[in-house]
Amino acid sequence: MALRVAFFGTPQFAVPTLEHLVKSPHQVVGVITQPDRPRGRGQQVSEPAVKALAVPLGLPVLQPERLARDQFEAAFTALHADIGVVAAYGKILPDWLLATPRLGLINVHASLLPRHRGASPVHRAVIGGDAATGVTIMRVVKALDAGPMLSRVIVPIGADDTTSSVEADLAVRGAELLVATLDDIEAGRATEIPQDESQVTYAPKLTKAEGLVDWRRAAGDVHNLIRGLWPWPHAYAFLHGTRYILHRSRISPMTAAARPGTILAASAIDGLHVACGEGAIEIVDLQLEGKRVMSARDAMASRALTAGAQFSTT
Fold first, then answer.
1. Beta pairing class for 37-39 and 44-46
2. Which of 311, 167, 313 minimizes the C-alpha distance to 249?
3. Count of CB atoms within 10 A of residue 232's CB?
């Protein structure tokens, strides 16, 4: 017998999971997502990506501002869900809600738990230079990302992958795994494995200040920071007081000794290469604050980008 599923999700990462659920034998009886909010530079009010998918499909959509029992319990209970599925919903779920569906709630978490519990698991995996990450389907419990694991899939991280490309891959792999896990739960063959608390690491929420490049770090660390903070909040550095947002990079073959942050080469032929504490990186795409994103080779018209100039932290 198919399960009645209440789906909690908000951003684009959650969309493939809802798409796969709708196509599965299970029945999505309600979609709970964040309220419409102002977004982007213009602060135009827009709906979450999950709502944009759910409404045309005719799915019931609930957008509670708060999940307090006295405000949301009646609407949620009326769904008569067997189980809840969470994929990047964006809010902590209260105890009363966890206890309401007869089969509880499970979460699509974008990491190989117990590594990278918390708000930014994909960013932290890329910034940390992890060779692989993955998706874990876990039972939602009161403690943050600490529930027992039902299934997981390992996904490699390429040397030039960004947070965006990894998230897109994980969203699809997680959606497939979630449906298979629901099938196992329905069939009574799912097993739960406790997390190894001795292996726990945390992935706290990002801040824009973390994007400031410390050129004293090794080239691999700087490259990981740039790709780990793309598409948000971006890595950046200053040159002659101007802020440059660094969008894409790669490890440079150049080995010349110079102070960290020094431009080793800046030409349409060689590209833009910058010395790090160990090794160097090539900046491929960049953006002067307030201007359009451009390739480093196109940016060579700027007189500031010359060999010998030095990026700084102010």
1. antiparallel
2. 311
3. 11
Sequence-separated (6 or more) residues with CB below 8 Å from residue 63? 32, 33, 34, 35, 36, 51
- Please give the distance of CA 82 from its chain centroid, rounded to a whole number: 28
**Which pLDDT tens digit goes with each residue over 61-91?**
999 999 999 999 999 999 999 999 999 999 9
Whole-number Å distance between alpha carbons of 272 and 103 = 56
What is the rounded CA–CA span in Å between residue 300 and residue 283? 12
Q: How far apart are CA 286 and CA 266, in angstroms?
A: 13
Rounded to two decimals, the pTM is: 0.92
The tokens of 297 are what? Answer: 């080779």
Amino acid 23 reads K
Model confidence pLDDT, tens digit, residues 102-147: 999 999 999 999 999 999 999 999 999 999 999 999 999 999 999 9
Q: Does the N-terminal peptide bond of residue 233 adopt cis geometry, omega within 30 degrees of 0?
A: yes
